[in-house]
C-alpha cells in the first residue's frame, strides 16, 4: 500500500471528508435488540429502515504500527425515548485505545469495561475523548436537530468485537426524559 504522507479536509458543517476509501451506512435493521423499546423499534422498522449513522474511512493496513482513522456521523433522532447511537464495540485486541475528536453536534460516549466499570463522557465541538484500552465505546447523538460528527483514530491491529455488546447491551443507556438527556440504568442488564 502507498505509504506516502497525505492530507484531507473535513468539510464543516457536515463532516464529509473531501476524499475517503470506504463509506459505511448503518441502518435500523442492523441494530436489532439494541434499543430498549423493542415495540417502537419493530414499528419503525416496519415503516422504514432508517439510516442511523455513517462512517467515512481511510484504508490502511490492519496491522500494529498503523493508525486507522475516519469520521463517524450519527444522525439525530430517537427510537422510543432512546437517542440514535452507534452499535458500539470492544476492540478485539482488548488492550488497544482510541481517540475521538468531536467536530460538530452534541452527545455522549457511553463506555464500560469487562470488569464492570462504566463511564459516560460528553461530546461537544472541540472535545477530545481518550478511550483507554479495555473500554467498549458507543457514541450517542443527544441533539435532535443535527448530526454528531467525530474524528476517530485507533491502532491498526485493534479489530472489532461487536458480539459481546450485541448479546448483553451496555449497563447504561442515554434516554430523552422530561429532565433532558439522562443516563439511566439499562433495565435489561
Ligand atoms: C473504531 C471506532 C469508530 C466506530 C464508528 C462506528 O474502532 O470506534 O470508528 O467504528 O463510530 O461505530 P460502530 O463501529 O460501533 O458501529
Ligand atoms: Zn473503536
Description:
This protein has 189 residues and is mostly beta strands. It is built from two helices and 13 strands; from the N terminus they run βαββββββββββαββ. It has helices spanning 38-47, 163-168, and strands at residues 22-27, 51-58, 67-74, 78-79, 82-83, 98-104, 107-112, 118-123, 128-131, 136-141, 148-155, 172-177, 180-185. The strands form four sheets. Strands 1-2-3-11-6-9 form a six-stranded antiparallel β-sheet, with no helix packed on it. A three-stranded antiparallel β-sheet has the order 8-7-10, with no helix packed on it. Strand 12 and strand 13 (180-185) form a beta hairpin. The longest helix has 10 residues, at 38-47. The radius of gyration is 16 Å and the shape is globular. The mean pLDDT is 97. Bound molecules: fructose -6-phosphate and zinc ion. The site of fructose -6-phosphate (F6R) has 14 residues, from strand 3, strand 10 and strand 11.
Descriptive keywords:
Jelly Rolls; binds fructose -6-phosphate; 40% strand; binds zinc ion; six-stranded antiparallel β-sheet; three-stranded antiparallel β-sheet; single chain; 189 residues; 8% helix; mainly beta; 13 strands
Amino acid at each position: 500500500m502507498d505509504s506516502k504522507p497525505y492530507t484531507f479536509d473535513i468539510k464543516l458543517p457536515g463532516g464529509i471528508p473531501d476524499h475517503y476509501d470506504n463509506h459505511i451506512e448503518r441502518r435500523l435493521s442492523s441494530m436489532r435488540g439494541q434499543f430498549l423499546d423493542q415495540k417502537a423499534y419493530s414499528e419503525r422498522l416496519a415503516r422504514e429502515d432508517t439510516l442511523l449513522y455513517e462512517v467515512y474511512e481511510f484504508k490502511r493496513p490492519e496491522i500494529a504500527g498503523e493508525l486507522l482513522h475516519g469520521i463517524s456521523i450519527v444522525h439525530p433522532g430517537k427510537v422510543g425515548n432512546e437517542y440514535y447511537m452507534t452499535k458500539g464495540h470492544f476492540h478485539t485486541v482488548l488492550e488497544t485505545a482510541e481517540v475521538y475528536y468531536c467536530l460538530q453536534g452534541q452527545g455522549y460516549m457511553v463506555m464500560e469495561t469487562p470488569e464492570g466499570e462504566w463511564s459516560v463522557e460528553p461530546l461537544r465541538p472541540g472535545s477530545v475523548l481518550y478511550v483507554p484500552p479495555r473500554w467498549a465505546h458507543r457514541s450517542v447523538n443527544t441533539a435532535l436537530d443535527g448530526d454528531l460528527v467525530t474524528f476517530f483514530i485507533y491502532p491498526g491491529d485493534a479489530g472489532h468485537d461487536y458480539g459481546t455488546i450485541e448479546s448483553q447491551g451496555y449497563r447504561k443507556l442515554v434516554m430523552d426524559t422530561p429532565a433532558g438527556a439522562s443516563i439511566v440504568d439499562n433495565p435489561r442488564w
